[in-house]
Amino acid sequence: MPKRTFNRLDDDKKERVMRAAIGEFQAHGFEKAKIEVIAQNAGVAKGSIYQYFDDKKELFIYSVTWALEYFMKVIDRQTPLKDMDVYDYFLSGSRERFKLLKREPLLVAFSMDVVSGKYGSLAKEVNSELNRIGEEYELKLIANGRKRGTIRDDLDDKTLLLFFQGVTEKFTTEIMEKAEGFKYEPTEEQYCEMESLMRKMVSLLKQGMGR
Amino acid sequence: MPKRTFNRLDDDKKERVMRAAIGEFQAHGFEKAKIEVIAQNAGVAKGSIYQYFDDKKELFIYSVTWALEYFMKVIDRQTPLKDMDVYDYFLSGSRERFKLLKREPLLVAFSMDVVSGKYGSLAKEVNSELNRIGEEYELKLIANGRKRGTIRDDLDDKTLLLFFQGVTEKFTTEIMEKAEGFKYEPTEEQYCEMESLMRKMVSLLKQGMGR
Amino acid sequence: MPKRTFNRLDDDKKERVMRAAIGEFQAHGFEKAKIEVIAQNAGVAKGSIYQYFDDKKELFIYSVTWALEYFMKVIDRQTPLKDMDVYDYFLSGSRERFKLLKREPLLVAFSMDVVSGKYGSLAKEVNSELNRIGEEYELKLIANGRKRGTIRDDLDDKTLLLFFQGVTEKFTTEIMEKAEGFKYEPTEEQYCEMESLMRKMVSLLKQGMGR
Amino acid sequence: MPKRTFNRLDDDKKERVMRAAIGEFQAHGFEKAKIEVIAQNAGVAKGSIYQYFDDKKELFIYSVTWALEYFMKVIDRQTPLKDMDVYDYFLSGSRERFKLLKREPLLVAFSMDVVSGKYGSLAKEVNSELNRIGEEYELKLIANGRKRGTIRDDLDDKTLLLFFQGVTEKFTTEIMEKAEGFKYEPTEEQYCEMESLMRKMVSLLKQGMGR
DNA sequence: CATGAATGAGAATTCATTCAT
DNA sequence: TATGAATGAATTCTCATTCAT
Fold first, then answer.
1. Are A48 and A6 in contact (CB under 8 A)?
2. Mean pLDDT of A69-76
3. Within chain B, how many helices (H) and strands (E) appear?
4. Most buried of A137, A195, A209, C177, CB within 10 angstroms?
5. Which of these, C105, C171, C161, C170, lies nearest to C134 by C-alpha position?
């Protein structure tokens, strides 16, 4: 969706532009985000932004896409675990995911805002795609649970999904807020705290939707 | 926070102004909401809005307050049930709350957006007050549960609160979206569907955090 | 020039309105002076101002007139000295005039601004009248001096007038600024300081334009 | 104080903008001066003004600075006469200064208004700087006079300064008003009239503060 | 392609004046 | 007459987008 001038750019400049855009959108919202500021922070001229993207909206939409793809790449690399148990999912690899929160707080915060609907209709397309992918993944986890008989069978998938999403989103947000509070690389203690919270969450999930 | 001029207005005009403001903010977000449109929809002159409020921001903040107080009033009237069991809470009076969603879809949608953080820092003050009130209420429910021994005692209040909030917010949102889809007074069938969902949620809550 | 509704007012209210107006014009200039503030400070309704005066401009012009007349009254009462010597003028009654500065700093400051042309064309009529009166008085003083032979006769009246005005206005302004600095009734010391300055000024005037 | 954008402009445009601004401020005062009119007269877009200056106020303040600096430049070139006698000062180069008044009536009128305090607190900073510079210069002239013994020694500098300023400001204003009345290049007769007035003034100054 | 000055549509805000009570 | 809410014309200021260099 960006113009081909953007794609031809060297990776460093591309990344600078995207991070500057995401930072500005995240900080001030779509309306108050200024193209000029984005350009400055990216170290390019204001006019250049318009060589790369048709308009502000397109820049925003691509920012969402870019953030999404960034996570896809990183997460795929870290958790290629598709037929895992629902409950195990959160316990395995949690340190890696936690590190990620610390390493990319901006992208995380931005993505959270997108998912939470803060940008309204603007991010709709990308967001619905994102939701679809997430939901598919979660339904897969639920299906796995059903096969193994670790999930109660008096409730339909849709209800279980709501429950699962409600609980995990809430705890994830909590952890993210914690992560933002810490500075630098998390300490062992912080890891433990986070893992403890994860374990409590899994316990609640297990009791709630378990058989 | 509105000026004296606003408070002296007759109730009808006050309500017209607030509903026009909320409608506009809800529809277009704070930045794109136009004072002129709000004034028109309220049937007053643009300048009058500035006789009532210092500026757009204050009008917005008061809109949040107004919506909050509206619900306070209505809900207080409907559910004066402070030492209820956690699980009963959602089952009792659910039809009344459901009706409310249908009667005031605008206020509901607006409040949801405020709570979900869609307006960012603007609504922060009012919103944090709102959160505090909600949380207090929920902790009370949890405390009630602990006294009666209906809640597992291996988890701390904070964790239980996260679980409780996550689940109930998700299901509430789902119901609200359903309610928006229906037109006019809900049918018996719709009530049943909603109550069924509530029952499923309570079942998950009970299993998850119950003893 | 005010409407007859204003003239019918009791003296106290009239004075309150005029002082409120003068205070506001003096503080913020004509453009930024707010009718609302004037009304509030006068203790009347905004609408009432429009019962008294056609518009803001008229209120302003009458403010100038009112201040002028106030001084006429007071000064006439204090210095009915028409065929005085130029040089004596400033020495006689200077304490009374100094007291006046302290008693009515607002009116003094306002009048000074009017005379100095701060209100541009607005005060033109009143101001030119004021100038005419002042000039007439000063020319009279000069004529007196000529008769007595205390004034050099190699210069025309116009030049002498410029000289006289330049010197006296400057010293007057200086004294006025001093007066504003003091609080409450001037002390004996302050009187002396002021009289000393007057005497120096007269010495310069005398040497400059004297024979 | 203008933005970088303004400084990068070519000199012609800079001058056009400043003259348009000064003309508008001079004609209507700060409050009633319209940015739109300034832009039109400068031949630029309204928005451009805001690329150059933060707001109307800053544009005004820079207008004052610009006019001041203009005179500094021109006068420095014309009268590099720092240890001149007080009385000679006004006689030497008076034709050049008179020409200046005719050539730049706008700047002169504007500067006069600034100095006379017509813009109130707005120009305060720039104006106090301007006053300081002027006063310094005048005190220097007085000091020169003292050294040569051409100034009476029974009066302090402060008093002499007041006298000097009062007289010269009044005569200068008179001359300026005359200059405005003439059109085009002054005639020989006009020069003579002006020089005559200057000579009379010096005579009064000399007698007044001379030994 | 990069740059950054120019543009002007669009919105917020002000406040003198009117007018119904 | 007094009051103060209502009105809307008038102005400032913003910033996405264009375009000449």
1. no
2. 78
3. 11, 0
4. A209
5. C161
D83-94: pLDDT as tens digits: 667 778 778 778
- Buried/exposed B136-162: b ≥16 CB within 10 Å, e otherwise: eebeebbebbbeeebbbeebeeebbbb
Closest residue of chain D to C116, computed from CA coordinates: D116
> Would you say D67 and D110 are in contact if contact means Cβ atoms under 8 Å apart?
yes
- Chain-chain contact of C163 with D167 (C-beta, under 8 angstroms): yes
Distance C50 CA to E9 C1' (A): 37
3-state secondary structure of D151: strand
Which nucleotides of chain F does any protein CB come within 7 A of?
1-9, 11-20
Q: What average pLDDT does chain B have?
A: 89
Rounded to 5°, angle at Cα B173 from B167 and B176: 140
3-class DSSP string for chain A: CCCHHHHHCCHHHHHHHHHHHHHHHHHHHHHHCCHHHHHHHHCCCHHHHHHHCCCHHHHHHHHHHHHHHHHHHHHHHHCCCCCCCHHHHHHCCHHHHHHHHHHCHHHHHHHHHHHCCCCHHHHHHHHHHHHHHHHHHHHHHHHHHHHHCCECCCCCHHHHHHHHHHHHHHHHHHHHHHHHHCCCCCCHHHHHHHHHHHHHHHHHHHHHHEC
**pLDDT band (50, 70, 90) for residue C79:** low
The yes or no reply on domain D79-211 and CATH 1.10.357 is yes
Q: Is the dihedral of CA B140, B141, B145, B151 positive or negative?
A: negative
Q: CA separation (Å) from B19 to B31, B41, C42, C165?
A: 18, 9, 37, 66
Buried b (16+ CB within 10 A) or exposed e, D55-67: ebeebbbbbbbbb
Nearest-CA distance from D161 to chain C in Å? 10
Identify the residue whose Cα has the smallest distance to the C1' of E10. Answer: B34
- CB count within 10 Å of CB A101 equals 21
Mutate to test the interface with D, among C28, C138, C204, C206 (most CBs of D within 10 A): C204
In terms of CATH, what superfamily is C1-63? Homeodomain-like (1.10.10.60)
The residue extents of the domains of chain A are: 1-62, 79-209
Nearest CA to CA, how far is D12 from chain C (Å)?
Answer: 31
The reported pTM is: 0.90
Contacting partners of chain C (3+ CB pairs under 8 A): D
Could you write out the DSSP letters of every residue in C89-114? Answer: HHHTTHHHHHHHHHH-HHHHHHHHHH
Q: Which chains reach chain B with 3 or more Cβ–Cβ distances below 8 angstroms?
A: A
The string of pLDDT tens digits covering residues A137-194 is 889 888 888 988 889 999 999 999 999 999 999 998 898 888 877 667 778 888 899 8
Strand, helix or coil at D1? coil
In this predicted model, what pLDDT tens digit does every residue of B112-138 receive, in sequence order?
Answer: 899 888 998 888 888 888 888 888 888
* Amino acid letter for position B179: A
Specify the nucleotide whose C1' lies closest to residue C8 (CA).
F1
b/e sequence C128-154, b meaning 16+ C-beta within 10 Å: eebeeeeeeebeebbebbbeeebbbee
For B157, the closest chain A residue by CA position comes to: A200
Cα B12 to chain center, whole Å? Answer: 22
For D1-66, CATH number?
1.10.357.10
Rounded to the nearest 10 degrees, how much is the dihedral formed by the CA atoms of D6, D12, D18, D20? -130
Domain A1-62 CATH superfamily: Homeodomain-like (1.10.10.60)
3-state secondary structure of B151: strand
Chain B CB contacts of A201 under 8 Å are 159, 162-163
Nearest CA of chain C to the CA of D168: how many Å? Answer: 8
Nearest to D44 by CA among D52, D33, D32: D52
C9 CB and strand F closer than 7 A = yes
